Amino acid sequence: MATFSHATPERCAQLGRALTAAGLTWSDNGQQGAPQFLTYTVTDSHGRTWRISPATSFQISPSAPVQIWQASCPALMTTTPVLSARQVAEHIRDAA
Hints:
Blueprint (H helix, E strand, L loop, with lengths): L8 H13 L3 E4 L11 E4 L5 E6 L14 E5 L4 E2 L5 H10 L2
């Protein structure tokens, strides 16, 4: 069974700070207590909606434990690799 124990309140706060610092509009669904259901909705500068969620424990590399977030954008038909909070915010901000 997949676990999501890495999506701690501090890591959620880091993601929020990174999204805000990147100038992105975002919201979460309030499921920090149940990270398997946690999602963030982000709007990029082109008006596209991205969905960010924590990766499962199986997707996280032991050599990169801060890379726990994965974003997808249906309008671009893309999903990012598992990234850190800063990296996922920058990826969304810089998406063409």
